[in-house]
Predict the 3D structure of the following.
Amino acid sequence: MTEKLINSKPNGVVALILIELALVLGVFIFIMGAGSENIFGIIIGLLLILISVLAHAGLKVVKPQEALVLTLFGNYTGTIKEPGFYFVNPFSIAVNPAIHTRL
């Protein structure tokens, strides 16, 4: 198996801002829907809240001299080696292979 380096840097800060805005919008729509007894507003608000809570799982931090190996349902999808704050697929699992080693 060959290593796939993920060079495109999905900005985690922009993703975090968008996720938080979706969460606030979802809460607002839910409250407005509940106040006017609009079932459509309640459902849309709950869906936005659920999606934004699930999207928080995609925010990953890579510290200096560390790397993350990303797998999606057991299949290798790539490696992030550069330090930073990233947004990846929320359903992928990030494993730090050197978590128990000491420098």
